[in-house]
Design a protein that fits this description.
single chain, about 625 residues, mainly alpha, Serine Threonine Protein Phosphatase 5, Tetratricopeptide repeat, 23 helices, elongated
């Protein structure tokens, strides 16, 4: 029987340490024209180790120990069946033959990772599958379970990178199953991969082994989150992402600013699903953890050092992005409350409001239960800070103006923070999107305001923040953004017009409107018409021709704009019959367009169902009104 001498074993361990040094440290300084120089040196050392191990294996008469090349694919055998074989059959990991087999498998693993790192994917796959084949001879145990998981993680990454998501899924799910069963049946800190080539005096402590093993499983969860996202299984993806972030904090293995941005991104999934408590928790944790990255370097320091300048910009940008996620949280909370509380004409349903307030105490109790069962982030050092930040904004739907205003103010504070980085000079698109969100915050808050005059002022704030930018943006370079702003401005003026008329009717006490009110009403009506018409004109060709076929992304906005223009022309208040006739004819022309377009393009009817129905009705009624007006005009003449 062949045995390794102490010197031979020490030589193998030294080669492995050097290979790791080349891979993890020296490779960072490789020149651009030879980026894999250190990785190639590490590969040579790993091959020498492989040859040494194979020679002693052959000397022991173990001829069938090595793989014969080729590829192995995930079997169709159920996971439970595969696990049973892995845990119940094969060589013992602590037997001499089992140890040699696992060491050979480990070298194959490291060679596979090396080839993948140097973009030689086919060779990398072959080595990783050789590792898998060798491990088939072994029973999962404390000595090898970490390698069982690592190799499947790497194969999962490899196949995911090739777009073979389901193949990646099978490897990663098996890695997860192995971890879960091992923890259930054993759970002791397993041998780490580096310990296969370490002398006894350099073995890791239990704590170190446990941390590295848990980190390997954290990687499994991280990759599975991406796989499930690519498969469209968003709920599972969110669950795995949340668990990954939580484990990263527990293990202390994370980059604070990147972790924070990932948590803030996850919050956006939760809030779109109405899970405001989880969304708020993610955002609060993101804000607190981002603070661990330190203070933003001063401008003076940034100017003196290129590294500090880059760090300053990165910190400011990431924190501004987290602020934007907070804005979305506040906005969606307000918008979802509006959807719940509005009646069939879009106004606040006060009866429902009172009913929901009565149920609020029960909801608070349910929140507390959910809070305890939720997967929380943080450690003893950060729990209190995260909880304190959560208390600044509710995770319950606001039911009245006071509650809505509290949410609004938090959102507006983050608008200010986001705009400090995403300024108009350099970040036009981002800056405008933040302004649009700010406008939407005002719109949602206005829904809760009972005072009509104050509601008008809120909409006027929206106009003030959007109108100048809309007119200043380059018509060609920012066409889509300008269209969005035109449409929003048109709708805002339209809402102000309706509110002004409501207020005037209340104050007039059923008497006719005074000239000042009529002038204000017509001014708002004309402004709304102007922006709807600007939007429609933006759809014209360079020759000024309106398209015969509207593209899908502008179909509804264009038809709605036509419908609104028709309605606005008919609502203008004027004393001159000739002007009134022109307005009615313009109104009829636009109503006809909606009807005729839907007749020529039947698929459009479903997009503007209610507008089409009203347009058809007005196409039938307006000619009668026009003819009566013409008859009066003729009689007066």
């Amino acid at each position: 029987m062949a045995f390794l001498s102490s010197n031979e074993w020490t030589a193998i361990c030294d080669k492995f340490i050097n290979a790791q040094n080349f891979t993890e440290i020296k490779s960072r300084n490789d020149p651009e024209n030879d980026p894999y120089r250190s990785k190639y040196k590490a590969r040579d050392l790993l091959r020498e180790i492989h040859c040494s191990l194979k020679s002693f294996e052959a000397g022991d008469g173990d001829e069938d120990g090595g793989p014969q090349g080729g590829h192995q694919w995930p079997t169709e055998q159920p996971v439970d069946g595969q696990l049973e074989e892995m845990f119940e059959r094969g060589l013992d990991g602590d037997s001499p033959t089992g140890q040699r087999t696992v060491r050979l498998a480990a070298v194959e693993y490291y060679l596979g990772v090396n080839h993948v790192d140097t973009e030689e994917l086919s060779a990398g796959q072959e080595h990783l599958m050789n590792c898998m084949k060798l491990l088939e001879r072994c029973r999962v145990s404390t000595e090898n379970v970490s390698l069982f998981i690592h190799v499947r993680n790497q194969l999962g990454i490899l196949w995911a990178g090739r777009g073979e998501t389901e193949t990646a899924q099978s490897f990663l799910e098996m890695a997860e199953a192995i971890y879960l069963r091992y923890m259930k049946e054993d759970g002791s800190p397993p041998t780490d991969l580096v310990e296969y080539f370490t002398t006894n005096e350099k073995l890791l402590t239990h704590q170190e082994k446990n941390k590295k093993f848990e980190l390997a499983y954290t990687h499994t969860m991280y990759y599975l989150a991406q796989v499930y996202q690519n498969l469209g299984q968003t709920e599972r993806a969110a669950t795995y992402c949340h668990s990954t972030l939580q484990r990263q904090l527990q293990l202390g293995q994370f980059n604070p600013i990147e972790w924070a941005l990932n948590a803030a991104t996850l919050s956006q999934y939760y809030i779109t699903k109405g899970r405001y408590m989880e969304g708020r928790h993610c955002l609060s944790a993101a804000t607190v953890i981002s603070g661990l990255a330190g203070e933003v370097p001063s401008e003076a320091a940034a100017q003196e050092s290129e590294i500090e300048s880059e760090r300053r910009d990165q910190l400011r940008q990431k924190r501004a992005e987290i602020a934007r996620c907070w804005i979305k949280y506040c906005l969606i909370l307000l918008e979802d409350a509006k959807k719940v509380l509005e009646d069939n004409i879009g106004e606040l349903d006060t009866d429902l409001q009172e009913e929901l307030k009565r149920k609020r105490m029960l909801e608070v109790e349910e929140e507390e239960k959910g809070r305890k069962s939720a997967l929380l982030f943080g450690s003893e050092d950060t729990f209190d800070s995260i909880a304190s930040l959560e208390e600044t904004v509710s995770c319950l739907l606001p039911l009245d103006f006071t509650e809505a205003r509290n949410v609004f103010l938090v959102g507006q504070n983050y608008v200010t923070q986001a705009k400090e980085y995403f300024q108009m000079d350099g970040y036009v698109t981002d800056h405008v999107e933040i302004l649009q969100d700010h406008s939407s915050l005002f719109r949602s808050l206005a829904f809760f305001e009972e005072d009509v005059e104050r509601r008008c002022k809120m909409h006027k704030r929206r106009v003030d923040m959007l109108e100048t930018i809309c007119l200043e943006l380059h018509a060609q370079y920012y066409l889509m953004i300008r269209r969005q702003l035109m449409f929003e401005l048109a709708e805002t003026y339209n809402e102000m017009m309706d509110l002004k008329l409501t207020l005037a009717n209340r104050q007039a006490d059923t008497q006719s409107l005074d000239s000042h009110t009529i002038k204000k009403f017509n001014s708002l009506c004309s402004a709304s018409t102007k922006y709807f018409q600007m939007f429609l004109d933006s759809l014209r060709s360079p020759e000024g021709k309106f398209p015969e076929h509207l593209e899908k992304e502008v179909l509804r906005p264009a038809l709605v704009a036509r419908f609104r223009v028709a309605r606005l022309h008919s609502r203008l208040i004027c004393s001159l019959p000739l002007t009134q006739l022109d307005n009615l004819n313009n109104s009829l022309e636009n109503y006809k367009y909606v009807v005729q377009y839907c007749e020529a393009h039947p698929e459009a009817a479903a997009v503007v169902e209610s507008e089409l129905e009203l347009s058809k009705e007005m196409v039938g009624l307006l000619p009668l009104k026009i003819n009566r007006l013409k008859a009066r005009m003729a009689a007066n003449n």
